[in-house]
Specification:
Blueprint lengths: L1 H25 L5 H35 L6 H16 L9 H20 L8 H25 L5 H32 L1 H23 L8 H12 L9 H19 L6 H13 L6 H18 L2 H37 L25
Amino acid sequence: MEPLLRVTVAIAVVSAVLGLLVLPGLLGNVGEQAVVWGERVTSTFTYVAFVGLLTLIGLGGYELIRRVDLGASRYAALALAVVCVGLASPAAARPLLALAQVVLALAAGGFTLFTAARPLRSVHTRAVAVVLGFVGLAGLFRALAWTVAAFSLASPSGYTLARGLSTLAVVLWGLAQLVAVAYFATRGKLRGRVLGNAALIAGFFATFLATRRPPSLAPVGAVFHVAFSVGASSPEPLGIAPIAYYLFPTGLALACVALLQRQTVGAVVGPLALALASQGRFDVPLAALSVVAGGMWLVLAAGDERALWSELISARRLAQDDAGAQGKRGARAPSRERGASLEPKPTAEGRVAETPSPAGEPPDGA
């Protein structure tokens, strides 16, 4: 099950990167042949991810039914999952109506919050559950902001309320990324810190290219500029629009970092990658299926003792490796100093002074 989970998560993350950051900006900035191939590649990854996520949801639902220790709450989670799958599945053939998108976003957000509650009690899934909870809240406020804005086009006060909800969604999305970076730094040690910082720098660089006038490094800057315009929060948040722009590519970069955490159990790091790749856009069917699959498998991992011990052993091994590396670096400098002190030194007369021999042993040649 672990290989299937990791492969499906990787395909879903690649599909999110292509669909959100690459394909929207190709139109009008590259040749027609490149646009056609971009659409083909993105569609292929999207459909494969769609089928893979449905498979994970089916297998996860079966495992939830078998888990008697979860109590009756597992049936409520399954009911929300069925609603999300039923609303998202028609998107494989035709675009969803606006009402279906709103209901899907609210159902997916509710499912995310519901499934994030139980993993908070387990040590090895607590950080990922916090990220999942923040993403779920961000998705709910984003859907509410979009709905209020749609019904308040003629009301300035209503549209201001919608912008306030959008601002709150951006803040929660930023908190989710902050917890994810801290998780990588504590679980991945040096490698996690390097990759987390690299993701933040990559997001800053992409934002810099997209927001410059004229765009830098054309056509890359032009592609990013269009992608950021399409992927920007709607309605625009109050006063923190630049932060919302920055969080857009950073979330995708952090999802890629989650894929590289090979030492972590797939049922723990997989939901983290899916939550970050969803961007809280639960009105998008693939994003909604991503958080549904991630929430299911995180609940299963929270009650799995093997996952718990695997996480603890992995964290201890990483701590020992870091301690050993620091000990080697600390021991290397004193050894050089001791070796230098034992070297023979010339005297003022130009002869080499004899090294004093240990007590009880005659000097050489005696």
